Amino acid sequence: MKKLMKGNEAIAEAAIQAGCKCYFGYPITPQNEVPEYMSWRLREMGGVFKQAESEVASVNMVYGAGAAGVRAMTSSSGLGIALMQEGITNLASTQVPAVFLNVMRGGPGLGTIQASQADYNQMTRGGGNGDYYLPTYAPSTLQEACDLIQKAFDTAFKYRTPVGVMVDATIGNMMESVDIKENVQPDPSIPDVNEWCIRGGRREDGSVHRIKGLFNVPEECEAFNEELAKKYDKIRENEVMVDIKDCEGADVVIVAYGTTARIAKQTMKLGKENGLKIGMVRPQTVWPFPYDELREACRDAKGVLCAEMAIDQLLQDVKLALEGTKPIATYHRLSGVMPSANDMYDACVKLAKEAK
Amino acid sequence: MGEMIYKRTDFLKARPTHYCPGCTHGLEHKLVGEVLEELGVIDRSIMVISVGCSAPAYDYANVDNIACLHGRAPATATGVKAALPDSIVYLHQGDGDLLSIGLDETISAAGRGENITVVFANNNIYGMTGGQMAATTLIGQKATTCPAGRDPHLDGYPMKACEMIATLTAPKLVARTALYDIPHIIQTKKILKKAFQNQIDKKGYSFVEILSTCPTNWHMSPQASMEHVKNEMEEVYPLGIFKDED
Ligand SMILES: Cc1ncc(C[n+]2csc(CCOP(=O)(O)OP(=O)(O)O)c2C)c(N)n1
Ligand code: SF4
Ligand SMILES: [Mg+2]
After folding, report:
1. Model confidence at A10: pLDDT above 90
2. Is the N or the C terminus of chain B less surrounded, counting Cβ atoms within 10 Å?
3. pLDDT of res. A355
4. Is-above-0.80 flag for pTM?
5. Using N-to-C axis directions, what is the helix angle for A142-159 and A218-238, rounded to 10°?
6. Rounded to an integer, what distance in angstroms lies between the CA atom of residue A308 and that of residue A306?
7. CA nearest B164: which of B136, B202, B132?
């Protein structure tokens, strides 16, 4: 049933409907409605809500609950996610599933509390140590945010990995009509958690489950890293999501995600009205990134415009995808100043002219 | 056939530990194991392992266990208990872990009254990283980051965990014990039993600090280390029950 809901609350409800049983979090704007909603709603649904003493604590609480095979999550904004990085790499190394929601605000440092996409590198490159990745969804509507946070739990448990969902403050705080899927059942391909999770005591055959990321022997740690790399290859192979619009025969292709992609849609409309063919590639997963899909979609384009609420972060992946085959221009606004469809259109016109 | 009057606790695997001779970490695991066995809760026990010399205890625990990041064991245990409220969790933490990097998690879990049992191995030093000064290092005690001895004007004063935690409302049991002779070992075991009984009865948070040894980084023999606990440590860290609420 469609309902008008506030972003952060809708995403929290979607998580609960996907079986989230434990939420731990520390207040930070612009995502405070997530812990606030969880504090009564999750408890009402028989789950556990705890307000953590810090994001460092939140991520380690998530670790404990995830290790028990339970669907657990936390949410924060860039500063808090920064504090969680040691915990996120620990989850990757201990193969404990969990979901992290980042409602992005402006940075660096304390920055602003308004919408931004400047945590792109933080989510896709991470700040934790070692060879790990954080599979991350980047929805652009509230409906998509609800659908993808539900999918994020499945991905986390399918691959036994932490998974990120990143939206900006606009999506977190706007009201939009959503149809949240209720009582979503886990993907049947997910392996039984009882094969690895801690429950207390030991199995009937006397075996014990250990959740650990520390190795006594270098060769064992090396072998584990190779296994982990294979897992990331599998995720790259199976989990890329991208929305491609009107790219065939396009003069210019815009690459954008999240709120910027919503604005790019307006720009495409301006193109239609003024006779400039504009297509769009909208990554729904930013890790793994749709490199091949992007290159293929831009085949006809004279040039590619990378639009983001950050300075040249998404651009790095666009460059990796295009491998120097197309001229690339950029358009950005920052720190809560919203991109404008008109300015983005002007950037497309300029690019099309110069790329001739 | 003789009668079995003593055996290795089923809580631990039958294998040697890496602990140095005279180190009390192993004895503490053993006492906890015996207590959990006597209380009949091995089948729902979880060892929550911290970072310090006891980090490799995942190789010894004969029950499900989880190795935590440095200082975060109380937060991780909070998550474990949120997911598994009937499990019995045993946190084993050193002084660097519990009182320095993890002080926030320690105090906050105690303040919330998490239904967990914390065993604090206070050896006045960072054992694992090679003998650096801890928040608990005694005045005048030498460590690799205070080679001339801890000078309170430069490095401040020893921090006292029990005294701090006992000021909080939620904790049910807060006690400091030692292991330097049989009566104290028996007393420690008694207090540990009460601490875990509290958890079984869902009464809430219990904290047992055990004055521990690190012969290797103290540069003392195992026997001299025990003497040091009795003669030097106990003076700064008096034994006793700081809080016991039924
Ligand atoms: C974030 C982080 N910082 C530093 C370390 C290095 N480190 C490992 S153990 C340790 C100190 C342990 O001392 P303590 O907790 O007293 O345990 P002990 O070895 O004395 O039993 C430190 C600083 C680490 N593992 N993680
Ligand atoms: S270094 Fe110290 S604390 Fe570590 S095992 Fe040896 S004696 Fe025990
Ligand atoms: Mg120590």
Report:
1. yes
2. N
3. 87
4. yes
5. 140
6. 7
7. B136
Contacts of residue B79 in chain A, CB cutoff 8 Å? 22, 24, 60-68, 72
CB atoms B82 and A208 under 8 Å: no
Mean pLDDT for chain A overall: 97
Nearest residue of A to residue B52, measured between CA atoms:
A214
The DSSP code for B204 is -
CA of B212 to the centre of ligand 2 (A): 10
DSSP string, A126-153: -SSSSS----EE--SSHHHHHHHHHHHH
Q: What is the mean pLDDT of residues A307-326?
A: 98
User: Helices A33-44 and A7-17: crossing angle, nearest 10°?
Assistant: 30
Cα A268 from Cα A248, distance rounded (Å): 13
pLDDT by residue (tens digit) across A154-191?
Answer: 999 999 999 999 999 999 999 999 999 999 999 999 99
Closest CB to B63: pick one of A50, A208, A213: A208
How large is the average pLDDT for residues A96-109?
Answer: 97
B56 touches chain A (CB under 8 A): yes
Structure confidence at residue A83 (pLDDT) = 98
Q: Which amino acid is at B168?
A: L
- For the segment(s) B17-244, the CATH number from 3.40.50.970, 3.40.1390.10, 3.40.50.410, 3.40.50.2300 is 3.40.50.970
Query: Tokens representing A281?
Result: 């590639």
Task: Enumerate residues 6+ apart whose C-beta is below 8 A from B215.
Answer: B20, B21, B22, B23, B221, B222, B224, B225
Domain ranges of chain B: 17-244
Nearest to B82 among A22, A211, A214 (CB): A22
Low-confidence spans in chain B with pLDDT less than 50: none
The tokens for A54 are 């810090």
pLDDT of B202 reads 98
**Domains of chain A, each with CATH number or no CATH:** 3-178 (3.40.50.970), 242-354 (3.40.50.920)
* Nearest chain B Cα distance for residue A109, angstroms: 22
Contacts of A22 (CB under 8 A, 6+ apart): A47, A48, A49, A50, A61, A62, A65, A70, A71, A72, A73, B79, B82, B83
Whole-number pLDDT of residue B1: 72
Question: ipTM of this predicted complex?
Answer: 0.96
Q: Identify the band that residue A127 occupies on the pLDDT scale cut at 50, 70 and 90.
A: confident
Chain B residues in contact with A214 (beta carbon < 8 A): 55-56, 58, 67
pLDDT at A126 over 90: no
pLDDT in tens, A210-222: 999 999 999 999 9
What tokens does A174 get? 């706007």
What residues does the ion ligand 3 have nearby, CB within 5 Å?
B 94-95, 123, 127
Of B42, B55, B75, the CB nearest to A201: B42
Around ligand 2, the residues with Cβ closer than 6 Å are B 19-20, 23, 25, 53, 123, 127, 214-217
Q: How far apart are CA A154 and CA A158, in angstroms?
A: 6
**What is the structure's pLDDT at A109?**
95
Q: What does the alpha-carbon distance between residue A211 and residue A43 come to, in Å, rounded to a whole number?
A: 27
Q: Do residues A65 and A47 make contact, with C-beta atoms less than 8 angstroms apart?
A: no
- CB–CB of A50/A24 below 8 Å? yes
For A:213-272, CB contacts with B below 8 A are 213-214, 216
